[in-house]
Write a structure and sequence with these properties.
By secondary structure, the protein is of the alpha/beta class. It is built from seven helices and 23 strands. Helix 1 runs parallel beside helix 3 and helix 4 runs parallel beside helix 5.
Length: 351
């Protein structure tokens, strides 16, 4: 039985930052993640994707953000159960919880923080006949290593942040980048939309709107895509790679059966206080939760983690007063109370 103060479900950016905020309160954390490595989607789906809205970083790769967060929390010695999915939860008479994974590993804690991001997910695939035959043969639904596309002709379809950001990023890598969207308007950040327009005007991105990719050409691999524009004849655009970025279809998985209040595949929380769910002692932070005005941004997850930890401290130490201090005053100390060089993180992947 693994025991800890705060049991965190999900080792993505929000889950990792929770360790830091909990550590400042002298609370120990253990994290469970179904993935075999830390970082969540940042490590699994787009480790080389640049992120632009992390304070103090004008631009940082998603994988590098995970590394920086691990560096930040190493003095608090978090432990991990990786490669296992949190399956069931049981609330004991004393108010503590037992969480059991799909491999039978049991964890006990007075506080459970669900930071599972979008949960388990599958890419939304366009309804193109025979597209499955080209998967791993030029068709991909996410970009893990942009070097795969060096000196290649790439067609990206989509109108959200991922489509815009990757179109911008690949202009310095690919031989040719074409962005296809079914509307003239995009759903992504205005700054990214402006950047794409600038690159189009400079001849670095081919922008085709309103249009759709309705077919794929090629015998054993992608050799081109069929472009359909309303009122015009279809034509085949030669390319080496086709990347439809239409987002992910998220699923909560077993967590959806824990008796939590769910709304549109997200966990409802009380954002007026501490991001607690309808079950006292269980919190949900980051993209996995929902409340009026919710924004699914990493920095919002950081804010939620901070307030959640304050509430968790009161639950774990009822009646004990904690005087909040700025880290610039007290410094960041390990659990031994010293300010010397932080010890190397103790990461125990329990299989």
């Amino acid at each position: 039985m693994i025991t800890t103060d705060i049991l965190i479900i999900g080792a993505g950016p929000t889950g990792l930052f929770t360790v830091f905020e909990a550590g400042l309160l002298k609370l120990k954390c253990h994290l469970i993640d179904a993935l075999p490595q830390i970082g969540g989607q940042c490590s699994e789906i787009y480790p080389k994707k640049p992120i632009y809205d992390i304070p103090a970083y004008p631009e940082i790769l998603a994988g590098d953000l995970s590394d920086k967060l691990m560096e930040q929390i190493k003095s608090f010695e978090p432990t991990f159960t990786l490669g296992e999915r949190a399956d069931t939860i049981e609330k004991l008479e004393d108010g503590t919880f037992i969480v059991t994974t799909n491999k039978g590993t049991k964890h006990k804690a007075p506080v459970v923080a669900i930071a599972g991001g979008l949960g388990s997910f599958e890419p939304r695939k366009p309804p193109i006949e025979g597209i499955a035959n080209y998967e791993d043969k030029g068709v991909a639904y996410m970009i893990k290593d942009p070097e795969v596309y060096r000196d290649k002709k790439v067609v990206i379809a989509g109108g959200g942040d991922s489509a815009l950001d990757w179109s911008i990023f690949l202009t310095d890598i690919a031989k040719e980048v074409t962005l296809v969207h079914r509307r003239n308007e995009f759903r992504g950040a205005l700054d990214s939309v402006d950047k794409v327009q600038e690159l189009k005007d400079a001849g670095k991105i081919n922008l085709i709107t309103p249009a759709e990719v309705t077919g794929i050409a090629g015998e054993n691999k992608v050799e081109g895509v069929v472009i359909t524009k309303k009122g015009e004849e279809q034509y085949t655009l030669p390319c080496d790679n086709f990347i439809p970025l239409f987002g992910l279809s998220p699923k909560l998985g077993p967590i959806g059966n824990w008796g939590l209040e769910i709304e549109k595949n997200a966990i409802v929380v009380n954002n007026a206080l501490d991001y607690q769910t309808n079950i006292e002692g269980i919190y949900a932070i980051g993209d996995v939760n929902t409340y009026p005005g919710k924004l699914k941004l990493i920095l919002c997850g950081f804010h939620e983690a901070t307030l959640m930890c304050q509430s968790a401290y009161k639950r774990i130490h009822p009646g004990k007063k904690y005087v909040m201090k700025y880290t610039t005053v007290g410094g960041v100390q390990g659990f031994d109370g010293t300010k010397k060089e932080a010890p190397k993180a103790v990461i125990k992947a329990i299989n």
